[in-house]
Amino acid sequence: MPSLSIARRFDPLWDSHLEAMNPGWFSVGKKCDVPKDACYVGQCGKTYIWVMRDGMDSLTKVTLAILDIASAAPTSFAVLHLTPEAVHLAQLKSKAATLADLLSKYPRNKLTK
Could you tell me which residue, 97 or 52, shows the higher pLDDT? Predict the structure, then answer.
C-alpha cells in the first residue's frame, strides 16, 4: 500500500482511486461461472475473474490509480530484473561508446600512420 504522502500527491483524485480499490465491480469464480457477455476475463489456474459492462468505469479508475502510483514512486523503488546477458551487453555498449568517443578526438590520418 502506498504511503499517505504519496497518496496525497493525487488530491483530488485520491477519493476516485480509493473507490476503484473497493471490490464489487469485478467477480471471481470458476470457468463455468463466467458470463458470456463479460467484457474482460482473466484466469490463474482454475480461478477466473471478470468485469462486466457496469464495472468498466471502476476498471478504468483502478488502472489509472496503479499507473499514478507507479509513476509517483521514486526510481529507487523500481526493480530491474536483468539477465546476465543483458548486463554484459550493456557493459559492451558502454565500452563501445567510450571507444567511439576516444576515436572521434583523433583525425583519421593520424591513426593510419
Answer: 52
